[in-house]
Specification:
- The chain is of the alpha/beta class.
- It contains 9 helices and 5 strands.
- Strands 4-3-2-1-5 form a 5-stranded parallel β-sheet, with helices on both faces.
- The chain is globular and about 50 Å long.
- It starts with a strand and ends with a strand.
Length: 203
């Protein structure tokens, strides 16, 4: 029952909300892209072997949900490794150890039939909503220069790099991150009551 909203998307979630803007611009008041994957990433990452149930189960249960694997991923994503505690790793794992995890991975990774494929003609230049592109200045997974380049393609966007943060600036530098988002929303939101913000995050 939400007619339109401000959207925040991190990593793969950035690709998702850009697709939503392309298909339903009237539903989106603004978007914040946080270390976002490219708009065509959801299709490029799909591999045939992800459609094999045995592979999905073995990968998710045998590797992705193990402490050592999550720690390695977080070490790549974080700039400040001292923030990666045993408690944080277990917190991530608790959110991943849910029924249907392997099915979810399959849905994100297997090739799609033609009837289900997202549009392949989305252009940054056509995504005409107020946009904030936020990036961890030390992101080793997706270079800040990629974000800066894409921000120049949007009709209405500005780019902000957050120092001392990697691929997850909202976790490493939460005060700075929230400050940038609130400042942006205050500029694009009429001063009539609170705004609703929808978030999308898929790593």
């Amino acid at each position: 029952d939400i007619d339109n909203a401000h959207l925040i998307g991190h990593s793969y979630g950035g690709s998702i909300i850009m697709a939503l803007v392309a298909d339903h611009p009237e539903r989106v008041r603004s978007m914040v892209l946080v270390d976002a994957a490219a708009v065509d990433y959801p299709m490029k990452r799909r591999k045939w072997f992800a459609g094999v149930d045995l592979f999905n189960f073995a990968y998710v249960r045998g590797l992705a949900l193990r402490t050592g694997f999550v720690e390695r991923v977080m070490t790549e994503a974080y700039y400040d490794d001292s923030l990666i505690t045993d408690e944080l790793i277990e917190d991530y794992l608790d959110r991943l150890r849910v029924a249907g995890a392997a099915v979810g991975f399959r849905g994100l990774s297997r090739p799609l039939p033609s009837s289900q494929r997202p549009r392949d003609d989305i252009r940054y230049e056509d995504l005409d909503v107020p946009t904030l592109v936020l990036w961890g200045a030390q992101d080793q997974l997706i270079s800040p220069e990629v974000g800066r380049h894409h921000s120049d393609l949007f009709p209405d966007a500005r780019f902000v790099a957050i120092e001392g943060a990697g691929h997850a600036p909202m976790e490493e530098k939460p005060v700075e991150f929230v400050g940038e988002v609130v400042s942006f929303l205050s500029q694009v939101t009429p001063q009539k009551g609170p705004s609703r913000v929808a978030t999308s995050r898929t790593d």
